[in-house]
Write a structure and sequence with these properties.
The structure is a homodimer of 224-residue chains. With 224 residues, chain A is mostly helical. The first copy, chain A, has one domain: Methane Monooxygenase Hydroxylase, Chain G, domain 1 (Up-down Bundle). Helices cover 83% and strands 2% of the residues of chain A. A two-stranded antiparallel ribbon of chain A has the order 1-2. In chain A, β1 and β2 form a beta hairpin. Chain A is elongated. The two termini of chain A are 30 Å apart. The relative contact order of chain A is 0.13. At the A-B interface, α2, α3, α6 and α7 of A face α2, α3, α6 and α7 of B. Chains A, B: Pfam families: PhoU. Chains A, B: Homodimer.
Chain lengths: 224, 224
């Protein structure tokens, strides 16, 4: 097999692993949300445990990228692909962390002392999670399908998540003022929406790297 | 000039720029804290503006790293240095973002409606900021001086920041329960300590990359 063909095969594997890591983080977000909605502590522990698999995947992809760069002098477009992959996985791993952070809210000790049933999720928060999931899926789809337009439109969606963050934050403050929400539930809810807001930011970062991959420009600046 | 010598010169410049970026983020943390302590909205706006310079620096270093990889097939240790730099700057840039996030708390609209004077910072929070600053400085110093021990001890300090986070979080909940803190100030304070906690995490990440640079192992796993 020619060196070039072996290199292309390795790139194919990289591609495949990125898609797999994408599925892993989407699943992590979904199951975290289920755990939190049903206040399922066992499920939460499972999610935190499976975050390790996402971290392992990041390291596996990272090692593959480094070896690809080391083994053969890549041409410019290959280098762009490899550096995009190295940047994307950092954001993907953080999204996995935030899914675990969300799940860990179930395990909050304060919560157990809370007399009311643990009800943290309202329609606005569900909407945030839905947009996040859509953004994560689209950012990876944009990469797989070389879809510049999709990367650009996905970035625009992030402002909806940001707006919902501020709306729910105001709801929490109002809830505290009228004693409709306990202080510890308020803290948990604020952290929950912060994690959701950050997931949107990381999906945006992924899209920005996809744009770099496709155009050589990162945030409208020529990088290579 | 030989290609190798030109390459070494470029590596020297990379080194220099990383140190400069380190100084920029340390300054950002310090000035954010001053802005928040004195509730100085103008200073806060300046910090948010100067975060752009940190982002620019990240892109400049990133472009240099990519060019270094592209221009000459780097040997394993050079490659390790370059990939460490590419990873470090992601965390450094996030620390800069968090400094701007901290400053932006001054600009919170809710706060203006707050009857009490804006006093968010207590001794525990100051302690968190001090440890953060120390961690950031040490992580970069460990890189510059090839100091493996310093990278390892710095990582251990992160648990102090985490403990303080939970202590202050409990203080906020108690403050809310006894009406000693307004809901909006509680939200701002929780976000503040979350940013401080994250800065510690990012400094830890930097140290982990320094360990990779010096040993080839990342979080006790062989990467290259």
């Amino acid at each position: 097999m020619s060196a070039r063909r072996r290199f292309d095969e390795e790139l194919g594997l990289l591609h495949h692993e990125l898609v797999e890591m994408g599925s892993m983080i989407e699943k992590a977000i979904k199951t975290s949300f289920k755990a939190i909605e049903s206040d399922d502590e066992e499920a939460a522990k499972d999610i935190i445990e499976s975050d390790k698999a996402i971290n392992e995947m990041e390291r596996k992809i990272e090692a593959r990228c480094l070896k690809l760069i080391l083994r053969q002098q890549p041409v410019a477009t290959d280098l762009r692909l490899i550096s995009t992959a190295m940047k994307m996985i950092t954001d993907m791993e953080r999204i996995g962390d935030h899914a675990a952070d969300i799940a860990s809210i179930c395990l909050d000790d304060e919560k157990e002392k809370n007399p009311e049933p643990f009800r943290i999720v309202d329609d606005k928060i569900l909407k945030m999670a839905d947009i996040d999931l859509e953004m994560v899926a689209s950012s990876i789809s944009a990469f797989i399908n070389d879809n510049l337009e999709l990367a650009k439109t996905t970035i625009k969606t992030d402002s909806e998540v940001d707006e919902l963050f501020y709306e729910v934050r105001d709801d929490i403050i109002k809830g505290l003022k009228s004693d409709k929400i306990s202080p510890s539930l308020a803290m948990d809810t604020l952290m929950l929406i912060k994690y959701l807001e950050r997931i949107g930011d990381h999906a945006t970062n992924i899209c920005e790297w996809v744009i770099f991959y496709l155009t050589g420009e990162h945030k409208n600046k020529k990088l290579l």
